[in-house]
């Protein structure tokens, strides 16, 4: 406890500086979906990292946003890699922000700005932790590397190739991922995996122009065509009917199931927030948690055909489109699922339905719960937060974890300074200043225990 | 042939006046869907009818466009009722018109304007025919009545109630319907029936706001819900699966089938126009004609859910909507089909899908081909056009024929001065001047033979 006090005092001493630097990062818009401010952000970040003693540089990516790489310390003592991203979600709808998204403001013990929770706050926290460590304990006996990308919010389209090309540069012993936080009960949440994704668009075509609906007896209707094609993909019991779809799905281990049981139930809070009486299939408890983290999905993101305005128009549409995303779990592969999806439509007589992939897919990936690095991070988290840590074997979402786990061979644990109302991706995104302090304490403590 | 010459000479003598009066009708916009110019049009039409010796008046309709009623001649000699409508389709898209839609212009032997084919041209033709008749043969030995409505293009929502209320006023022996024309081969086409319609909108609801698609494992997706609900309505063989849907469908009679056989095949022209290689179910020949005229439909007019813009957004929609129209054949009833549709969704466990009717439905109705009035119109048509008439027992479209046939007890035959390229409902709508002349000759000859 003595050491904790020392660290907290040092954090408090420099807090004004950390917040000033965080505000500087937040002040620079960096919206990957809009290609806005990415080069400027990368440049600013390199300068900021250098201020904290990190040997940083920007690495150009052909057709993409630059990667920011940095290193500090002695590689002979082991290497810890921090993965972060400097891009943010679009700030729209602007009218719902209480203060402008790129003009950070502190009020009521919270700092508000687009990207503060996801994930510029965690970047500054990790830099501040290095500062505290050096203030108190001198130079690092091991090395810390940073990789900060600028395209996470658009599916990290260049990460697989980049990691492949810079395998040596990125060599490490373990990786701390970008985000995380505490749950409603204040327990630190550690996440060890991400789902993968395949995103496709389907289009059916009929006549070359919309026709009068009197012709529905004999003119093909692409909306019906798509309805029938979709109905072959998934049944009402939510089973995905593509041959071989589940072949590579790994069931959760006994260890995974033990971890699931320990995740606090927050069902009612989620249902209330979504205005739902029941979850799909009336899922509850362990079954719900198991499905959310270990099952793949086939989801309709959107569909459109014909006349959708007010009132009635008697039209027979000339085309119909649907967007689908499949969230994949280990060891499913997006290119394999795409192949099986194509074969499915051929088999069911829907070879006329045109399919295109909207984004490059991503692979699912996870680090086993029993890995010593997971245990280390867990022990540090429980010491710092003084509560039992929640171990999430996977999240339902997607991130570029796969090349870090499989190309670089690293154990990956995701942690951060978020909390349930931090509003990542939404207006009035924020972090609590107390969580930022504790986040710095967490990383300093991790550094002290890393080797 | 002598008489034909006499009539044509009289038509020619007054043609300039008829065209001037037709232009006056066309110059007045009267778009029911936009509630534009309907009162003005009704007033203009009353004045025009009076000029032609018809005792005309406008009858207000609560919440609707006025009905224009007129009569001329001696009711003791029998009564012929003309049904027409003075409203027109919206003229949009305006940029595709060569000359403005409400500035009628004659070029290349055709008169162009919105509503000239559908159906102001036929109104003027019928008035002109009365003029010719009186010029050549004196006053009418029987009575002609006109009923001209202003809401045909929006589904005639007030017609059933109006006919019920004005049963005595509308008493007649037979009815000539609003529209028709010659086919590609120049044969006059007579139509003796209309399909009915039921138009509904279905909506499925999920969470109260769009959710992140990572939640697709446990958050209900209304787009999937609607896909599954729709898939129970119709199979890939185009069979409508609602219990009892076909119960009241009358199969075509032997006489109907003979008439169908005589309808010239125009399949290739239609396929070319629509850019289709094959019709639905590879329909051809008699089977195609039978299905087009005697089978009901269940058609998706439009559907929408979630994100439909460019690229990929990983969203789980909060609602999904679809618009359906059912074209009904004798003796199906829209309110009965609605009841069966509701029962269908209950039975299949889709009671949560919200259903609303978009427009008041319409009933199908037809006059038997063997009716003496049909034979009379056919003989007159063949004499005037000097080609075999095509008898269409029904059309695939919908109109308010039901109260005329069933409440007033009239035989109804639809004829007019159109041709395959008259572009009703489309930009550059037009009639050929030669078809207008022949149309007047047709009605004069019909009047001479009516009693």
Give a topology summary.
The structure is a homodimer of 451-residue chains.
Chain A: H1 2-27, H2 38-51, E1 55-59, E2 67-73, E3 79-85, E4 105-107, E5 110-112, H3 116-137, E6 143-149, H4 159-165, E7 174-177, E8 181-182, E9 188-191, E10 193-194, E11 196-205, E12 211-212, H5 222-231, H6 254-262, H7 267-274, H8 285-294, E13 299-306, E14 315-316, E15 319-328, H9 334-347, E16 354-357, E17 365-366, H10 372-385, E18 390-392, H11 402-407, E19 412-414, E20 430-432, H12 433-450
Helix pairs in contact in A: 1-3, 1-12, 3-12, 10-12
Low-confidence segments of chain A, given as residue ranges, are: none
Structural class of chain A: alpha+beta
- Please report the distance between the alpha carbons of the first and last residues of chain A: 20 Å
Radius of gyration of chain A: 24 Å
What sort of overall outline of chain A do the alpha carbons produce when their principal axes are compared?
Answer: globular
> What share of the residues of chain A lie within helices?
25-40%
The count of helical stretches of chain A stands at: 12
Report strand % of chain A.
15-25%
Question: Which strand order do you get reading across the main beta sheet of chain A?
Answer: 1-2-6-3-7-19
What kind of sheet is the major sheet of chain A? 6 strands, mixed
* Assembly state (oligomeric): homodimer
Q: Would you tell me the overall average pLDDT of chain A?
A: 95
Biggest chain pair interface:
A-B, 71 and 71 residues
Number of distinct beta strands of chain A: 20
């Amino acid at each position: 406890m003595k050491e904790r006090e020392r660290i907290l005092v040092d954090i408090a001493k420099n807090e004004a500086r950390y917040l000033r630097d965080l505000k500087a990062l937040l002040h620079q818009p960096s919206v990957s979906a809009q290609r806005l401010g990415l080069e400027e952000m990368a440049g600013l970040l390199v300068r900021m990292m250098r201020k904290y003693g990190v040997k940083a540089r920007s690495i150009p990516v052909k057709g993409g946003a630059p990667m920011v790489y940095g290193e500090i310390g002695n590689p002979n003592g082991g290497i810890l890699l921090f993965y972060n991203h400097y891009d943010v979600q679009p700030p729209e709808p602007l009218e719902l922000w209480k203060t402008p998204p790129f003009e950070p403001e502190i009020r009521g013990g919270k700092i508000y700005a687009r990207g503060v929770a996801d994930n510029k706050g965690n970047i500054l926290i990790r830099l501040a932790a290095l500062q505290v460590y050096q203030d108190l304990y001198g130079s690092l006996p091991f090395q810390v590397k940073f990789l900060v990308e600028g395209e996470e919010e658009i599916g990290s389209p260049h990460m697989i190739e980049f990691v492949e090309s810079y395998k040596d540069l990125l060599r490490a012993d373990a990786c701390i991922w970008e985000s995380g936080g505490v749950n409603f009960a204040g327990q630190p949440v550690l996440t060890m995996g991400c789902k993968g994704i395949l995103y496709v668009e389907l289009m059916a075509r009929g006549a070359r122009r919309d026709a009068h609906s009197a012709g529905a007896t004999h003119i093909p209707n692409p909306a019906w065509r798509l309805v029938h094609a979709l109905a072959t993909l998934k049944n009402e019991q939510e089973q995905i009917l593509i041959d071989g779809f589940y072949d590579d799905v790994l069931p959760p281990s006994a260890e995974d199931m033990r971890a699931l049981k320990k995740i606090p139930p927050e069902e009612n809070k989620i249902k209330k927030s979504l205005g739902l009486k029941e979850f799909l299939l009336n899922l509850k408890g362990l079954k719900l948690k198991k499905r959310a983290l270990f099952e793949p999905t086939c989801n309709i993101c959107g569909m459109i055909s014909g006349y959708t305005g007010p009132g009635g128009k008697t039209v027979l549409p000339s085309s119909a489109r649907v967007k689908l995303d499949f969230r994949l779990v280990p060891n499913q592969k997006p290119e394999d699922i795409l192949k099986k999806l194509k074969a499915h439509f051929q088999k069911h007589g829907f070879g006329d339905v045109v399919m295109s992939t909207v984004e490059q897919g991503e692979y699912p990936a996870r680090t086993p719960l029993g890995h010593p690095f997971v245990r280390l991070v867990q022990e540090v988290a429980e010491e710092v937060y003084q509560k039992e840590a929640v171990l999430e074997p996977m999240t339902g979402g997607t991130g570029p974890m796969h090349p870090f786990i499989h190309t670089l061979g690293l154990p990956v644990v995701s942690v951060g300074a978020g909390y349930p109302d931090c509003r990542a991706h939404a207006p009035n995104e924020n972090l609590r200043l107390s969580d930022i302090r504790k986040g710095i304490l967490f990383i300093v403590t991790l550094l002290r225990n890393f080797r």
